[in-house]
Every structure is written in C-alpha cells, then in structure tokens.
Specification:
The protein is of the alpha/beta class. The chain contains nine helices and 13 strands. Helices cover 32% and strands 28% of the residues.
C-alpha cells in the first residue's frame, strides 16, 4: 500500500557555507554519521521558527559555526522514504577564518566529519544531485561577483490594536498580545541576516515591533516620522535618498513601517540596486502584519539586486 502523502511537506533549512583560503573559495560539506553520505548542512524546522532562524541554528548545532545569512539559493524538494515530501531552503553564508577557528565541532550521532572543498570537488563529492544543483547556482554567483551580499529588510509592524476601538491618536496605538508574540517570533529570523541598523516609524506599534530585535542585536533603533504613514509630506524622495545611502555604504538595514509605506521602501531598494520593478517586487511589498521582505544587494563594486524573499511569524 502506498503511504499517504500529507498536504503539508516537511520543512527544513540549511546553508552553503563558504570561505576564502589563499583566494580560493572552499565549500563546506558534512558527512552524516548514519547514512555516510556527503551533503550541505541542514535540519528540520522547529515549531514557531522562521526558516532563516532554522538555518542559522542548524548550522551552529551541526558544525559549531556561527553564520550570517547571505542571499537565498534554490530550494530542494524530494520524497522521503515514508512518502512525505520534504522541502529544504538554503542560503549562501561566508565565514571568516576567525569564525572557523572559534567553532567547536566533535563527531556525533548526526555528523561524522566536516570537509572544506574547492567548488568543483564539492560538486563531485555530493551524494545527491539536489545538493550539486545548489552549489552550481552559487558557482555562477561567484562568477558574477555576487557571492557576497548585504540585506535591506522592509518590515511591517506586528498586529496592533483595532483603530476603530482605539481612543486617542492613531500613532499611539500599541501592539496586541498577539502582536507582541509576533514581534518576538520574527526577531531571530531578521537577526539571521546580521543587520547593522534599525530604522522605524515613530508610531508606537512600529517601535514596539523592533524592540525584541533591538535587544537581540544590541542595536538601538532610530525612530523617524520619515517612514510613518502619518508623515506630513510625501516621503518618497527622502526614503530613496536614505536607502541609496545605506546601499552605497553596504550597510545591512531594517526599516519597520506601515502597509502604505512598505512599497515605497521596497521600490527605493530596487532603484538603489539598479534593479527593475516587476510583479515579483510588487508582491514582495504587499506584506501582512509581522511579515518582512529581505532584499539582497551585491556587496561588489556595482550594487545589484541579487535576490529577495519574504517571511513572517510562524505562530504556534
């Protein structure tokens, strides 16, 4: 009898971790203890985790390496022996020699050994074709000068009090208990990209949304009316200027705002990265509460929009 395949697949996340040694890129593969196969490190999603958070956690648990995520790579989809579908999400993540030196790894029940290999050797060593395909995309990014990126993140505030029931100024509306939970759930996922700066609308609900992220990163948010939906002036020109400055400085930045302003932020990043507006960038700006779109910009000499992705709170 064929096993029933449930509608919801098993989700997992991992990373193509790489480093430069004497100018040559090396890719990390893991040899799994039970299967004795070679693959990119990954692991299953825990309840309440975002996929980026899962990727960072799993890499540290399996290899001892503390990573910051770069641009996403193609996801892998395959059928498990029990008939369930599995989807694995990957990101590229460069690590420094100091990070490698600081890592603590010992063979265990899951991972027998770590291997750093040149790209061509890593492709040949992979047991599964889907891992090879991920490495091939990364190889092309290396050739294009897009292996290193930084993230500009557009974040919509978490669930706030109903405006029709709120007594007082709209800017003073606070998060609901659900919104507070959402803010805590998304903070590790945003932190996975290593942003250096947090800008937020001066509305209370936006400032509350970034509080858990601020504590996690140790970065003080900068409130501004510029990205508030109640800004007295149309903010597009100033948003374009601020975003262009962040892109020129190659600075990872979070901008927390409201539904009507998020499209302005996303468009500003696209323009600063010399990209083209499209149906995809439009969809990426239509965020629900506590969702965030990550726009990955090449850190090379010429800014370029390498990839974008959207995530949100995975509530228990």
């Amino acid at each position: 009898m064929t096993p029933t395949n449930p509608a919801r697949p098993v989700l997992a996340a991992g990373a193509l971790v790489w480093r430069l040694v004497d100018g040559e890129p090396l890719v990390l593969l893991v040899e799994r203890t039970q299967h004795r196969d070679f693959s990119l490190p990954k692991g299953k999603l825990d309840p309440g985790e975002t996929l980026p958070e899962c990727a960072v956690r799993e890499i540290e648990e399996e290899t001892g390496l503390a990573i910051t995520l770069g641009a996403p790579l193609p996801q892998s989809e395959y059928r498990l022996p029990d008939g369930r579908d599995k989807v694995v999400y990957y990101w590229q993540a460069r690590v420094s020699e100091q990070t490698v030196a600081d890592a603590r790894f010992s063979p265990n029940d899951e991972i027998l050994a770590l291997e750093w290999l040149p790209v061509a050797e890593a492709k040949a060593r992979c047991t599964y074709r889907h891992d090879t395909e991920v490495i091939e995309v990364f190889e092309q990014r290396l050739a294009d000068g897009h292996a290193e990126t930084f993230a500009v993140i557009a974040l919509r505030h978490a669930k706030a009090a109903n405006p029709f029931d709120w007594e007082g100024a709209d800017a003073e509306r606070t998060l609901t208990s659900r919104g507070e939970k959402q803010a805590k759930l998304i903070a590790p996922g945003i932190a996975a990209y290593g942003p250096e700066r947090i800008m937020t609308s001066d509305a209370v609900r936006c400032q509350q949304t970034v509080e858990p992220l601020s504590r996690l990163l140790g970065v003080k948010p900068k409130p501004t009316a510029l990205i508030s939906q109640e800004s007295p002036e149309h903010p597009r020109a100033e948003i374009e200027r601020r975003v262009a400055k962040a892109v020129q400085r190659r600075r990872g930045t979070v901008l927390c705002s409201h539904a009507p302003v998020i499209p302005e932020i996303v468009t500003a990043v696209v323009h600063a990265a010399d990209g083209l507006e499209s149906e995809r960038t439009h969809r990426a700006s239509m965020l629900h509460t506590a969702e965030f779109t990550v726009l990955h910009v090449s850190a090379g000499d010429v800014p370029a929009l390498v990839a974008l992705e959207t995530h949100g709170a995975r509530e228990l």
